[in-house]
Sequence to fold (223 residues):
Amino acid sequence: MYKILIIEDDKTIAKSIRNHIKTWGYEAEYVDDFQQVMTKFVSYDPQLVLLDISLPFYNGFHWCNEIRKVSKVPIIFISSASDNMNIVMAVNMGGDDFIAKPFDLNVLTAKVQAILRRTYDFVGQTNLLEHRGAILNTSEASITYNSKKLDLTKNEYKILQILMENNGKIVSKDSIMTRLWETDSYVDENTLYVNITRLRKKLTSIGLEDFIVTKKGIGYMVK
Fold:
């Protein structure tokens, strides 16, 4: 079942869209905290976003840009600010469509269905993991933090993936080495240490200091 995230500060409109979309068999949620839009986006992991332009704190163009740094999920702008300049900006920022308010909910749903078919008939879904504002994109082996994107090697990606999947828990060295071995790259404990050290250095370069913590004699964790 496709999930749709509604980023709209008028709760009456947001609830109407959510309730209508659900009658068509989709899951839908709307954002409550407009200072934590990306946290909601990552945790909900939607297949499509409906995004207003005029929002509290930061406008829709800002959030479109932030989403595009970590995901190619389809974005439909919904706004009463439907002059040519805003439509052009929406498209240039990475939007896939623009619907002017007021709109017919059936027209909105038809556009949602069309974009979902176009996108997911041919392209797999993007999976994201988030911790402390750092977003790991598992479909392209990259991590983004504070608007800085870092491409990861195969081993670096696998290490971060298993640690972030077990957020707040200690992951044993054996578990990590087994994950690396499954990628046809057998590593012993010393090689694991070298990989962890190199990864920590790269993470520090984008502001993620002490992201990976060593639990002596046991393993590693992110905190």
Observations:
- The chain has a mean pLDDT of 86.
- The chain has two domains: 3-120, 128-222.
- Residues 214 and 220 are 5 Å apart (CA to CA).
